[in-house]
Amino acid sequence: MAGWTQTQLLHELEPVVEVELERHLKVAKEWMPHEYIPWTEGRNFDGVLDGMPWDVTQSKLSETARTALVVNLLTEDNLPSYHREIYESFGADGAWGTWVGRWTAEEGRHGMAIRDYLLTTRAVDPVALERERMVHMTQGFESSFDVDMLHTVAYVSFQELATRISHRNTGKFSADPFCDQLLARIAVDENLHMVFYRNLMEKALELAPDETMKAIWDVVSDFQMPGSTIEGFTRRSVQIAMAGIYDLRIHHDEVLMPVLRKWKVFEREGLSGEGEKARQQLAEFMQGLDRNAQRFEDKRAAYRARQAARGQG
């Protein structure tokens, strides 16, 4: 059937949402954020409790680790905006609405837990962090593509995986076992969310291949991480990429390609007109992204070599 409306697709895919929701609830393990925080390291801050002012020397983390953690946290903080987007895309009825609520509840604990860790361990400046949170949440988040079910599911299929990898790599890079353990646990949530959306998108490709392929192309070609509106995001993302926490190579090899392969995007039959055009554009884009990733790797390797030669490696 050509020319699917969003209402038709929501109706036709609801049984798939029901199956995926049931699967998710069976495999998702309950966890308590407070159990991952080293509370005994906590001390009062200056202010109304007249505690100890924060100083950078109190942080056990490197500057880059602090940058990555702040970006990750501020990204998680914008949950109200993300909730609005998927609510507008999926609606509040039936299995779609149940998933929106469950997803929001699971995501909500991520920001709480990361903030508790950062403040308890005095890893970052609490005043600067709160001021950034206020600015970032006031700005909110708005997709660069149409807010409809197909574009939203395509986006979160990639974004949840990207977030999982970013959290996981940040935890490892931190060299703090408490941070690593917490972010590894959060990454499990993100992976389960990715699987839900990825499986749903796979069914959408079978049902409405042309419309779905067009949505995939739109999202991949203009993909932005949800934290891209954070002040100084470009500078911070370069710092994160130089550290190998999240860069173009990871985005290409570990985020986009695995999902596209799972969907059999480049082998799938049954496409016509717009769908086939979108696939060809996608193939060309991925080739260009691979070249750009290689150029960045070469520049980073040269930079590291220069730093090592100067005794700064």
UniProtKB/TrEMBL annotation:
For whether the record's keyword set contains Lipid biosynthesis, the answer is: yes
Q: Which GO terms describe its cellular component?
A: cytosol
Q: How is the cofactor bound?
A: Binds 2 iron ions per subunit.
Q: Where does Fe cation 1 bind?
A: E76, E107, H110, E190
The record, for CDD domains, names:
Acyl_ACP_Desat
User: Which family, according to UniProt?
Assistant: Belongs to the fatty acid desaturase type 2 family.
Q: What is this protein called?
A: Acyl-ACP desaturase
The record lists the organism as: Vallicoccus soli
Q: What is the lineage of its organism?
A: Bacteria, Bacillati, Actinomycetota, Actinomycetes, Motilibacterales
